[in-house]
Structures are given as C-alpha cells and as structure tokens.
C-alpha cells in the first residue's frame, strides 16, 4: 500500500472554533439523515402544528366567554401566546439533544460519547435538531403578525432592544429547564423525560398573563422556575413599554443555565461513579 | 384471559417500580388544570355565571376533567415507540395473544397503578377545595351514572391512545405524537374548558364526537345537567364510540404491522 | 513505562434489591434496599505497549467494568490507573485521542447515518489528515470488506457487518490502544476468522496494544500472547499463554488403536517411561501423562514395538480446558501454579 501524502485536515484548527464547527457538521449530517424519512419529518411538524393550533382555539374559546381577564384582552393574550411559541420554538430547535439523555443512559450509549475527545453535551446536542420547532416558529410568527395590529404596541428603540434581550433569555430559560429535567435520568433510569414533561407542563402556565395567578405562584414563576420570562415579561414590554423585569431577563436566563449545568455535571459524575 | 391478566399485572408492577413517574405525570397535568383554575377564577371576577355555569360548577367540572385525564395511562406511545425502535415489537408479535388486547391490558394495568393514586390525590384536592365549594353529585343516580360513564371513558381513552400510539410505526418522534394527541383529546373532551363554553353549534358537534365521553359526559351527569333518557343516550353514544374506536384501532394495526421491518440480517 | 498501569484498582457500586413479583415491587416502593457490589477488587495490572492481553473470566467477574475503568468512562472507587502516563478519567479528552474501544454487541456508530458518513465525522472529530483517512478506508476495505456497505445506514447492517464497521470506526484515528469487549460475540465462523486475522495484523504490524475480553477461546489463542484470568472481581492469574499451558495444561493424551488387542495390563510395556496412566477403551489404549515429565516419543516407541498399532492420535489439554476449569471453580491456581 502506498502512503497517501494528502495531509489536508478538514475544518478550522482552534479548539473552540473546531468544536463549534463539529457541532454544526453533526447537525447537518442528522438533518440529511432525517429528511430521508419524509413521513416521519412531516408527521413531526404536522403534530406540532396541530398542538399549537389547538392551543390557539382553546385561547379563542376561553376569551369568547370573557372579553378580558385582569386587564388582558384576547389579542394581548394572543400576542403573549405567539411570543411563547417563538421562545419555546427557538429553545426546542437547539434543545432536542436533551431528550436523548434518558435513552443514552438506559442503553449505555453514553459510553460511546465518553470515549470521544469532544464535550459530551456537544455530542448530545449535535445528535439532532428539534424539527417540530419549525411549526412553532412559523405559527408563532403568524400569530404575532395577526395579533400585532390589534394591540397598541409601544414601539421604540427601547422596546426593540428589550425584545432582543428578552427573547434569547427566555429561550435560555426553557432550554436550561429541559436540560436539567432530562438529566434526572441519571438518578432514575426508568423515568425517561417524565420530569421534563412535568416542567414542560408547568411552562404551559406561561400561556396566560401572570396576574391571573395568585401572588405566590407568580413569585415562583418569576424567581424559582422563571417561566414568566418566556412570554409574560416580553409581552408586557410590548404592551406597556419596557420595564425593569424585562431588562433583568438575562439574569434569569444565565441563572437557569448555571443551575442546569450543575445538575448535568452532578448527573454525569454519578454516571461515571456507577456506570448506569 | 389469563394471559391478559398476566400482562396487566406485569404492567402494574413496572408502573409501580417507576414510582416517581406517575406522580410526576400527575403533577404535570395538574399544572395545566391549575392554570385553568386560576384563569377561570380571575374570569369569574364580577360574574356569577359563564355560559350557564357557575364558578362552583366550573370548578367541579375541571376536577372531573383532571380525574378522567389521569385515570388513563398515557405512556403507551413511549412504550410502543421504544419497542418498535429496539425491535422488541417482534417479541410482542411472537406472543400468542392479540396485540391490541395486550396493549389494552397494559393500559388497564397502568390505570390500577396510576389511577388509584390519582383518585386519592383528586379526593384530597376535592377535600381541600371543598370549603371553597366543589359540588357534590346531584344525586345517587347521578353519582352512579357518572361512575359508569367515567369507567367507560377509561376504556375509550385507552383505545384512542392505542390508536395514536400506532402512529409510532411511521415516526420516531413519539413525543410530538403524544403531545398533539393530548392536546386534541384534552381540548375536545372538555378537560380544559367545559364543552358548554364553546360556541353553541360547536359544542353540539363536539358532543357527538368520541372525545366527549371522556370528560364532558361524566361531568354533566355528575352535575345533574344530563338526566334520565338524555344521560342514558349519552352513555350509549359513548359505548358506541368505544366499540368503534377499538375497531378502528384494529384496522390501523393491520396497516401498521405491515410497516414492521427487521433491522439487520 | 507500561502503556497501561493499574494499582490496587477498586470499583464498588450499589444496586437496588427488589424481590420478584407484586409484593416485591410494593415492598421496594415502601422501603428501598440496596446491595453493595464490588465489581473490581484491588486489581494490579500492567500492560506494556504492543502487548495483546486477553482478559478472561465468567460473566459478572468484572471484566467490562475493568475495561470501562481503563478507558476513563468510569471513575475508580480507589486505586490508580495510568494509561500512557495519564489518568484516563481526569484527562478523559486527552486520553480519548489515543485510545479506542468497542463494546460487544453495542454499536458505537450512529444508527441513522450511513457508515461512510459516520466514519467521515470521526475523521473530523479526531482531525485525521485526508491522506491517512483514505489509506485507512483502503485497509478496511481490503481486510474487513467494509466497502460493500459504506453507504448503508448502520441500522440496516447485519451483526457481522456492524462489528466490522465498528472496528473500522474505532481505528479511524490510529489509536495506540484498542480495547475490545467481547469482539466476536454472536459472529459466524467466517467473520470471526476475518476479524481475528485483522487483529493479528494490527498487533504484529502496527504494534497496537490490545486488551480484550472474551469468552471465545479461539480469540485467546489466535490473537493474544498473554492471559489474565479474573473471577469474583479478583485477579486469579496473569501470565503468558505459554506459561499457562506449561502450568495448567500439561496433560497429554495418546490414543493407540490396536489390531486384535490382548487388553493386558500395559504397565509392563510402559515401565521406564516415567509416571503415566494407561487404560483400555475398547480396542484403544489410552495413555495420559505430564508432557513435561514424560517424553512422548519414548511412550510411542514402546507401544509401537509391543503391539500391532493401526492408528494413533495425540491430544493436549488446551487453554480451553484451563479456562473451563476456572469457570467451574475447579482450578486451584495456588497449588498447580506452584511448580513451573
């Protein structure tokens, strides 16, 4: 066998850049693999679209009986719903990997990831995109476009800046919640995503404006499980102009991220301790 | 029959083993019910009735909706998707039992493990809110009728869940299927909003659909809104739908089982 | 310094205890009980670069756990591991660049992707130069025949194809150490042979260090030069294959088929050969002896002189017998290992 002298190495060299490039490369590969299963792909998007349309119908039915709740009209609530879809969609698009933690632990697939010279989380999240997010993002945009003109939005430089800060922060909150919740699988192998379903269920509370809830619950949704940052604070910024809460949303996002990271690290350490 | 009892018992045990699971599943749907509770609480501010329902009636209706939602194991999609993915479905096919029968036995086994605690929690919640006025059944007949309708609703919903779980033969994304199935049944059966709150024409149509049997029929019998012949006819419709959905599941299964491919050689 | 060095390596973990049946489930629900399990107990092991070491022991003896400790997947409870001078757990990423591992019938490859795509991704993860990658593909095509299924998604491969694919994937980055956990389990004879030939070549030509666990004794004799036997988390024996044969597999059996046997006591004929055991089985004289203490030609010469021998056959106790005796707990290593 002759020696092949081609010494070319694909991709950038600096480590951080290389990890990012590899992440993108994995996602690209999976996208191609996934698109070859057309039925699956369409069913995924269709199912998600159905879920969200039903959610909207629900909102319509509810508001058809009461014109406003605690000062929020149907169109304002629709705006809030649209923002929730955008924020959750953004987080779900890049958060699909979290859902594979349970299976990877149960089937011992984590071993394979631990043998590779790449951070395990990068490999997990590189394992696929959340395609259902396409439906969420599309529908969310449509709702915002329709509801927008019905709501007197306070447009200013401040509002735009607030949205630019608040939406990624909200996505970070949801993304982190899903990572932390799915990491529970390290402790109860059988649970698989149950806690994540629970937290997703709690995030449904963000479909309604915060003042609907008792003070205690509203406090929890701001300080403990800051799902109010998914939709309520950004929506309030649009309706009533930016306030302190929306400017503080990066704190909620980064705080959630830190907590999720700690849970994940503890879980991984446990896995390395027991092997299951 | 003994085989099905064994399958149900096995599922009961494994449901018990993952004890945290069903408690969390219950809490998850509790979050949504809670959201509805507070929303309507705010909505009733300054109103005595919405669509003919008083606040007490709405509360009671939602509680029954929560109970009916949790009496049924909804992890079938996850289980079936997993067994299709790993190829274990082939082992299920080798067993000398009917596939649908086996899955329904599993569902009932889970109901025993999952529904009993759900019942206890519901009772606890009921006692807790009793002081704020959850209504008792409107009579002994109403209580019995509601129990029958609720029990039938368990079978009906299990059959619906089974049919939707079969979609896993065409997709790996059981989470999406489970969520949209839950969104569909919960909205159309009345677990989130009493069907009476829909526009009158829509509500009338929804009551003819299979989903109404899960929550709306038992709740209205309980509240005394459906009595006598009307209650009897509603339960008959529910029974008819149960049979129809079970049959539909068999047809779908025939199409789905043709999808089973054997991985590797 | 040794490529792999383990000192007093220990691994213990807890396992939930649940009685079978319904009442067991309920009881565990109310009061969970656990059992402490020692998977690896004070293991001392040193493997030089370029050695092929076979790790043998009954199921549950702690083989896989040891491999996972050596690869850095698991954290030791106590003791130290050094692989190429590093702590494989603490310096997991650096260690990962130099090693590879395959685990039995669990694939390391992505289920949904075509094999070629998976290999190309590994090339990029390990930053393997394009030329070396192409050369690797050629080698794997020549010896493992992977070119026949490069474009098929891994989920559609047969077990034999998948094991070969796994091996090709493990070697993309030209590791210094290749851990194999039951590499030939479930394979047909032809694939096994192909795989062993490849492993032999890697070991002899590239000087790859190969620690492998197996239940298949042919793997041991074909690929390895050293045998480590463990049972119940403890190391029972560690030595070269030759040493194993000379210590525990010394019995040689000669069978002579005789025309018109007189079935007389053969002790007279064999006197002077040394300690032998001889007996008749039908028309066959069976002579068993220690092959280091008694010379086979001497035995054969005497029998041939005294009888009309039609045919004869020689059988040695092999590694298989030794390992079987270990599994059945019939081998007393201390006693039999006493003399060289």
Care to describe what's here?
The complex is a heterotrimer of chains A (276), B (265) and C (340). With 276 residues, chain A is an all-alpha fold. Helix content of chain A is 68%, strand content 1%. The model of chain A has no long low-confidence stretch (mean pLDDT 89). Chain A has 13 helices and two strands; from the N terminus they run H-H-E-E-H-H-H-H-H-H-H-H-H-H-H. Chain B has 265 residues and is mostly helical. Chain B has one domain (2-257). A two-stranded antiparallel ribbon of chain B has the order 1-2. Chain C has two domains: 49-246, P-loop containing nucleotide triphosphate hydrolases (Rossmann fold), CATH 3.40.50.300; 250-316, Alpha-Beta Plaits (2-Layer Sandwich). Chain C is built from 13 helices and 13 strands. Chain C has helices spanning 21-30, 63-71, 92-98, 115-125, 130-144, 159-170, 189-206, 217-223, 241-248, 267-270, 296-306, 319-327, 333-336, and strands spanning 4-17, 33-47, 52-56, 78-83, 99-103, 177-181, 210-213, 226-231, 234-240, 251-258, 276-281, 284-290, 309-316. In chain C, strand 11 (276-281) and strand 12 (284-290) form a beta hairpin. Chain C is globular and about 75 Å long. In chain C, 39% of the residues are buried. The mean pLDDT of chain C is 85. Chains in contact: A-B, A-C, B-C. The A-C interface holds A 1, 3-11, 13, 18, 22, 25-26, 29-30, 33-34, 107-109, 111-112, 114-119, 269, 272-275 and C 13-14, 65, 68, 71-75, 89, 92-94, 96-97, 99-101, 103, 106, 108, 112-114, 117, 121, 123-132, 134-135, 138-139, 153.
């Amino acid at each position: 066998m002759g020696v092949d002298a081609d010494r070319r190495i694909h991709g950038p060299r600096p480590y951080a850049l290389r990890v990012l490039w590899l992440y993108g490369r994995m996602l690209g590969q999976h996208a191609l693999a996934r698109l070859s299963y057309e039925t699956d792909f369409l069913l995924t998007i269709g199912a998600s679209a159905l879920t969200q349309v039903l959610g909207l119908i629900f909102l319509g039915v509810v508001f058809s009986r009461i014109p406003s709740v605690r000062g929020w009209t149907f169109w304002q609530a629709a705006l809030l719903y649209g923002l929730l879809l955008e924020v959750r969609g953004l987080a779900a698009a890049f958060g699909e990997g979290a859902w594979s933690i349970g299976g990877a632990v149960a089937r011992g697939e984590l071993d394979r990831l631990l043998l590779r010279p790449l951070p395990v989380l990068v490999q997990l999240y590189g394992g696929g995109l959340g395609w259902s997010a396409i439906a969420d993002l599309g529908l969310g945009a449509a709702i915002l476009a329709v509801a927008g003109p019905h709501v007197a939005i306070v447009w200013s430089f401040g509002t735009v800046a607030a949205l630019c800060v608040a939406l990624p922060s909200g996505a970070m909150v949801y993304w982190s919640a899903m990572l932390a919740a799915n990491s529970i699988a390290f402790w109860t192998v059988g649970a698989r995503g149950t806690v994540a379903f629970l937290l997703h269920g709690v995030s449904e509370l963000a479909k309604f404006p915060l003042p609907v809830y008792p003070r205690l619950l509203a406090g929890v949704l701001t300080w403990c499980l800051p799902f109010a940052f998914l939709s309520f604070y950004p929506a309030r910024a649009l309706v009533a102009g930016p306030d302190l809460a929306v400017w503080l949303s990066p704190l909620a996002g980064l705080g959630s991220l830190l907590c999720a990271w700690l849970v994940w690290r503890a879980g991984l350490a446990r896995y390395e301790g027991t092997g299951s | 029959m003994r085989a099905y009892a064994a399958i149900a018992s096995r599922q009961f045990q494994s449901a018990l083993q993952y004890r945290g699971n069903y408690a969390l599943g219950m809490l998850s749907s509790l979050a949504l019910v809670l959201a509805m509770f507070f929303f309507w609480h705010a909505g009733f501010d300054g109103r005595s009735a919405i669509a003919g329902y008083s606040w007490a009636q709405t509360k009671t209706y939602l509680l029954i909706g929560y109970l009916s939602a949790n009496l049924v194991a909804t992890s079938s999609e996850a289980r079936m998707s997993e067994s299709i993915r790993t190829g274990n479905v082939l082992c299920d096919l080798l067993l000398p039992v009917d596939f649908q029968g086996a899955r329904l036995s599993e569902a009932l086994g889970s109901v025993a493990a999952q529904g009993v605690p759900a019942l206890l929690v519901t009772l606890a919640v009921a006692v807790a809110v009793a002081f704020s006025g959850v209504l008792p059944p409107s009579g002994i007949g109403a209580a019995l009728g509601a129990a029958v309708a609720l029990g039938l609703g368990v079978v009906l919903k299990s059959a619906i869940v089974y049919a939707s779980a079969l979609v896993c033969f065409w997709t790996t994304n059981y989470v999406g299927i489970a969520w949209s199935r839950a969104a569909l049944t919960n909205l159309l059966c009345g677990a989130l909003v009493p069907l009476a709150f829909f526009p009158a024409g829509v509500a009338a149509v929804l009551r003819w659909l299979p989903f109404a049997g899960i929550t709306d029929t038992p709740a209205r019998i309980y509240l005394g809104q459906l009595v006598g012949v009307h209650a009897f006819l509603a339960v008959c419709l529910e029974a008819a739908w149960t049979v129809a959905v079970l049959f539909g599941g068999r047809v779908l299964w025939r199409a789905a089982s043709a999808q089973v491919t054997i991985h590797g050689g | 310094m040794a490529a792999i060095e383990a000192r007093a390596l220990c691994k213990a973990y807890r396992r939930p205890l649940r009685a079978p049946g319904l009442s067991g489930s309920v009881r565990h629900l109310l009061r969970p009980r656990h059992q402490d399990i020692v998977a690896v107990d004070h293991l001392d092991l040193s493997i030089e670069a370029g050695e092929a070491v076979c790790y043998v022991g009954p199921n549950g003896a702690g083989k896989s756990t040891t491999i996972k400790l050596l690869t850095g997947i698991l954290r030791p409870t106590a003791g130290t591991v050094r692989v190429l001078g590093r702590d494989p757990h603490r310096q997991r990423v650096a260690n990962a660049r130099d090693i590879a591992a395959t685990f039995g019938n669990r694939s390391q490859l992505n289920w949904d992707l075509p094999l070629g795509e998976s290999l190309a991704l590994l090339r990029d993860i390990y930053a393997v130069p394009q030329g070396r990658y192409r050369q690797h593909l050629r080698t794997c095509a020549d010896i493992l025949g992977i070119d026949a299924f490069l474009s098929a998604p891994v989920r559609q491969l047969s077990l034999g194809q998948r094991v070969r694919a796994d091996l090709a994937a493990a070697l993309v980055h030209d590791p210094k150490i290749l851990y194999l956990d039951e590499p030939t389990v479930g394979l047909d004879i032809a694939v096994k042979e192909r795989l062993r030939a490849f492993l032999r070549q890697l070991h002899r030509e590239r000087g790859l260090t190969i620690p492998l666990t197996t239940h298949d004794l042919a793997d041991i004799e074909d690929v390895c030069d050293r045998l480590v036997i463990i049972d119940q988390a403890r190391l029972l024996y560690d030595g070269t294959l030759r040493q194993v044969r000379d210590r525990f597999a010394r019995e040689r059996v000669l069978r002579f088929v005789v025309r018109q046997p007189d079935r007389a006591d053969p002790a007279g004929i064999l006197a002077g050969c040394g300690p032998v055991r001889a007996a008749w089985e039908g028309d066959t004289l069976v002579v068993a002896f220690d092959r280091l203490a008694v010379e086979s030609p001497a035995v054969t010469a005497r029998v041939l002189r005294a009888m009309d021998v039609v045919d004869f056959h020689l059988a040695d106790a092999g590694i298989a017998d030794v390992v079987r005796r270990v599994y059945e707990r019939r081998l007393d290593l201390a006693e039999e290992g006493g003399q060289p």
